[in-house]
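Field log, afternoon session.

UNIT: design team B
ACTIVITY: writing a sequence onto a fixed backbone
BACKBONE:
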């Protein structure tokens, strides 16, 4: 019998009365754009993350893009990030005419490696691509910002990343699209760096019923600019345009759904943690299981493992009706759209190796123990063959 990779139907069954009540309230007041649920959600989100400002928006991609727009990032600017992430992380950089400068990941966490980041910054500064692989236009570039990604729900190494960026006056946008609910030394993700950006895409740890996202910051002046960008660069009112912006509002209906889901989110996070621990125990020695460094708690957006026998294990699981996914089959420096940057195969060997042996198992708060035991047994059998 087939099982879902992420079971949104089971979640809906668990929270249906509250979701319906919240949606009915929106239908009753009819303020589908910037209705009262948006402010209510922003206050809840800011409190949860531990920042003074949360700006609700239409997607995680918008949430990443707007801070770069607010700072005027553009041609001639280098923004450093990892090649082992969802495309949007680097897309927003290139979209503004700036150049993504890729930095390889730590093999244990799949997150940007601070040592390699320091090397890349030195290479840019001294214009020396022998120190670290650089894009073809490196002579024209000045480093302006870094986008660390909290991949699969695990925070990046902010203990080391933030001082490094602060010393050099670099802005930091935390890509917390996958990590809402995670923490480092008790501080929630989304709250690191100058701003944090998250996604509420339905499959994320906290997911809406459509596209949605949010930006988090303690910088009130920046938040004001973000709110302006959200509605076509509005000034005093929406017919006063003081900058270029976008149509980037979160739908009131999505805010209503998120408010209902926030109520059960802590319990869902605890369920994800218990499921991850059961996978850890059952898969130890069969595949390379995820490592969570001391002081960190993952939001477990994905439970991703490494195996040299990936294709055989995935095929065996598929035969048993167990879906798997590969995040990410193609590293960003090898995406056709970035060919002009001149990166070569082998430039980021850790990311490239991970893309060849990684895969993710079903992970959601409603995964029952019997199904999980069946998944683990199938992996064990496939690895032994
Ligand atoms: C790491 C990362 N960054 C950015 C995004 C973009 O978020 P959205 O799909 O909400 O635009 C995603 C979502 O898939 C993501 O996983």
């Amino acid at each position: 019998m087939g099982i879902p990779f992420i079971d949104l139907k089971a979640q809906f069954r668990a929270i249906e009365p509250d979701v319906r009540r919240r949606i009915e309230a929106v239908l009753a007041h009819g303020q589908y754009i910037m209705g009262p649920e948006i402010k209510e959600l922003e206050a809840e989100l800011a409190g949860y993350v531990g920042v003074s400002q949360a700006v609700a928006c239409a997607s995680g991609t918008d949430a990443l893009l707007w801070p770069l727009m607010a700072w005027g990032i553009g041609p001639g600017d280098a923004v450093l990030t990892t090649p082992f992430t969802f495309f949007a992380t680097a897309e927003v950089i290139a979209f503004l005419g700036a150049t993504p400068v890729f930095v390889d990941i730590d093999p244990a966490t799949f997150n940007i490696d601070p040592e390699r980041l320091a090397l890349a910054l030195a290479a840019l500064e001294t214009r020396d691509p022998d120190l670290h692989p650089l894009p073809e236009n490196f002579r024209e570039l000045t480093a302006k910002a870094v986008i660390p990604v909290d991949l699969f729900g695990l925070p990046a190494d902010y203990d080391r990343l933030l001082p490094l960026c602060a010393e050099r006056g670099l802005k930091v946008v935390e890509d917390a699209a996958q990590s809402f609910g995670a923490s480092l030394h008790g501080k929630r993700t989304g709250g690191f760096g100058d701003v944090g950006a998250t996604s509420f895409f339905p499959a994320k740890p906290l997911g809406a019923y459509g596209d949605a996202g949010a930006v988090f910051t303690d910088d009130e002046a920046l938040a004001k600019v973000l709110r302006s960008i959200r509605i076509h660069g509005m000034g005093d009112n929406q017919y006063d345009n003081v900058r270029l912006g976008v149509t980037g509002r979160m739908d009131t209906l999505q805010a209503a759904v998120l408010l209902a889901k926030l109520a059960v989110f802590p319990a869902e996070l605890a369920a994800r943690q218990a499921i991850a621990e059961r996978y850890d125990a059952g898969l130890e020695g069969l595949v390379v299981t995820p490592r969570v460094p001391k002081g960190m708690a993952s939001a477990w957006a994905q439970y991703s493992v490494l195996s040299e026998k990936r294709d055989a294990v995935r095929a065996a699981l598929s035969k048993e009706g167990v879906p798997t996914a590969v995040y990410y089959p193609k590293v960003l420096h090898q995406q056709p759209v970035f060919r002009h940057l001149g990166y070569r195969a082998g430039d980021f060997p850790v990311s490239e190796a991970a893309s060849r042996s990684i895969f993710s198992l079903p992970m959601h708060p409603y995964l029952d123990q019997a199904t999980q035991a069946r998944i683990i047994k199938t992996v064990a059998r496939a690895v032994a063959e």
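LOG NOTE: DSSP finds eleven helices and twelve strands in the chain.
NEXT ACTIVITY: expression trials, pending approval
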